[in-house]
Amino acid sequence: MTLSLFDQFSSPSFLGIPMILMALALPWLLIPTPTSRWLSNRVVSLQGWFIARFTNQLFLPLNVGGHKWAPLLASLMMFLLTLNMLGLMPYIFTPTTQLSLNLGLAVPLWLATVLIGMRNQPTHALGHFLPEGTPTALIPILIIIETISLFIRPLALGVRLTANLTAGHLLIHLISSAVFVLMPMMPAVAILTAVLLLLLTMLEVAVAMIQAYVFILLLSLYLQENV
Amino acid sequence: MPQLNPAPWFMIFMFTWAIFLTILPPKVMAHTFPNEPSPQGMTTPKTAPWNWPWH
After folding, report:
1. Quick one: closest CA in B to A163, which residue?
2. What is the ipTM of this complex?
3. 3-state DSSP helix/strand/coil % of chain B, to nearest 5
4. CB proximity under 8 Å: A 169-188 to B
5. In the prediction, which pLDDT does B39 show?
6. Owning domain of residue A132
7. What residues form the membrane-spanning segments (chain B)?
C-alpha cells in the first residue's frame, strides 16, 4: 500500500506488539537516577540543576498549597521534553504526536485543578466565571463564554501539543522529500531548500522545548487559579 | 489522520500514566542538593583548581 504523509503518525506495531510501548519506556535510560553519591557526574549534575531551577521558577507565583504539585509537574516536564526532543531524530517515533497521549495527560490534570478549586474554595473558583467590572447587561452571556472557555482548556492543551508536533514533523518530511526530488533536476534550488530544512529543524528543536514548557506552564496557571 | 483512530487510545493512555507515575518521579526526586539556598549579595568565593578526576 502506498504511504501517505500522515502514515508516519500511526501508532506503530510490530508482529502485533504496539511499538509505542518501547517509545514510551526506553527514553528514561537517558535520564539516569542519581545514586546517593555526594559527587555526581556531569549528566546527573546538569539534569539536577535544570530540574531544580525549572521547578523553582515555575512555582514562584503559586501559593504554598500548590507546591505539592512540584514532583508531578517536574516529572511531566522531563517526560514531555525528552519525548519531544528525541522524536526529532530520524526514524524515531514521537509519542507526543498522539492525541490520545496528550489528551490523556491534559484532561485528568486539568480536571484535578478544577476539582481542587471547587472542593477547597468553591466561591473563589466559581468567581472566575465573572470578571470584575463586567457591565450588568453582559453578565449572562459572559458566564456562558467563561464556562465554554473553561471546558475548552483541556482540549486546547492536548490539541496544541499534538498539532504543533505533528505539523513540525510533517513539514520536515515534506521539505526533505522536496530536497531529494529537486536534487537531480535543479541542484541550486535543492540546496536552498536544504538550507530551509536546516532552519526548520532548528525551529522544531525550539518548538519541542517550548511546547513542553507551555503545557506545564498552563497547567501551573490553572492550578494557580484554583489553589 | 491516524492519530484519530480510537483503537489504541486506551492502551496508550494507560501505559503513559503507568510510565509517568512509576518511572519518572523516582528519577526526579532522587536528585538531592547538598546546600541550603543562600541569599544573594554574598561574594562568590574564589575556587581553587582540583586535581582529582571528574568521576
Report:
1. B3
2. 0.87
3. 40, 0, 60
4. none
5. 63
6. 12-224
7. 4-24
Residue A168 lies in a domain: yes
Find out whether A171 and A14 touch, Cβ atoms under 8 Å: no
Residue A18, strand partner residues = A13
Mean pLDDT (chain B) is: 83
The answer to whether the Cβ–Cβ distance between A18 and B11 falls below 8 Å is: yes
Asked whether residue A94 is domain-assigned, the answer is: yes
Residue at A185 is within a domain: yes
Closest residue in chain A to residue B14, using alpha carbons only: A104
Give pLDDT, residue B5.
82
- Separation CA A211–CA A202 (nearest Å): 14
- Count of structural domains within chain A: 1
Residue spans of beta strands (DSSP E) within A16-171: 17-18
CA distance A55 to A46: 14
Residue A116 falls within a domain, yes or no? yes
Phi and psi torsions of A4, nearest 5°: -95, 175
Average pLDDT (A130-156) is: 91
Please give the pLDDT value at position B41: 64
Query: How many CA atoms lie less than 13 Å away from A191 in the CB half-sphere?
Result: 2
3-class secondary-structure state, position B40: coil
